[in-house]
Amino acid sequence: MSGANQSSTSEFLLLWLSRQPEQQQQLLFVLFLSMYLVTVLGNLLIILAISTDAHLHSPMYFFLSNLSFVDICFTSTTIPKMLVNHILGSETISFPGCLTQMYFFIVFINMDNFLLTVMAYDRFVAVCHPLHYTTKMTPQLCVLLVSVSWVVASLHTLLHTLLTAGLSFCADNRIPHFFCDVASLVKLACSDTHVSEMMILTEGGLMTITPLICILVSYFCITCAVLKIPSAKGRWKAFSTCGSHLAVVSLFHGTIIAVYFIPSSSQSPENDIAAAVMYTVVTPMLNPFIYSLRNKDMKGALRKMLGRKREST
Predict the structure, then answer these.
(1) pLDDT bucket at 30, cuts 50 / 70 / 90
(2) Residue 141 to residues 62, 137, 148, 149: CA-CA distances in angstroms?
(3) Which of 31, 99, 114, 242 has the fewest CB within 10 Å, making it most exposed?
């Protein structure tokens, strides 16, 4: 019976953009296309600058290049489908396509979370144990931290994807969003969703809150270490190495908490969409600017790389 119900829904409708007024649809299309292109170009420049400049072959920039790669993939999971649907005048996404989009969306959002946590640990070691930084943050450890993050994110996502795939979907196939979100799919199911909801709240919450706690503990230790520095200039220099990371963490976790951990009765669907746009589009777009504008080494590497390209042409 469950299989029959599920097979009756072969596709879903992503309705958010099509529900907007016609003129607003065109404006939103141009806006999302522009933000997507800026995101891809900005993060590609970060990856190229780090890979071509030997001075940036350090743990912090290794993690940053991974973050840029994940941000490109993260944004590419949702925005191109929405843009293509608008061009074709379609609202549909197939059931397998919806599950695939959901899978990669969860993988990449968790990778963003884990990489921000690993970067916080890197800053903790750099500020609190500067003399042991090179011996602690070895290339082997950096690769291991990123690899473990991929494995944990993939297993976590597989759990939620399998639970969602096992649900039954009946007549209502309308998703008031611009991508297939696990919470939206669970709301549409006409079978028992108790297990899925509990896993989203418990296991999903644990996967979000635990990295955030690790980040907060890291920065508490960093703050304690920095306050022991006698000179104001030394304290500012130590804090400045963490400013970019703190800005990205605040933007990312603030919007995630707003969407998934504030009761739905206390916020409107429009607020949900606005917060989702912040962490799916705006944060990945701003990351290259935040990390490059506040970083002299990164700005220098970008200038050298662009200078070499101009000379070669």
Answers:
(1) very high
(2) 12, 6, 10, 12
(3) 31
Residue 155 corresponds to which tokens in the numbers above?
């297993």
Q: What is the pLDDT of residues 87-135, one digit of tens each?
A: 888 889 999 999 999 999 999 999 999 999 999 999 999 989 989 999 9
Amino acid code (one letter) for 147? S
- What's the pLDDT tens digit per position in 161-212? 999 998 888 877 888 888 998 888 888 888 888 998 898 888 888 888 899 9
Residues 6+ apart with CB under 8 A from 165: 99
Strand 92-94 and strand 11-14: the pairing is antiparallel
CB 89 within 8 A of CB 55: no
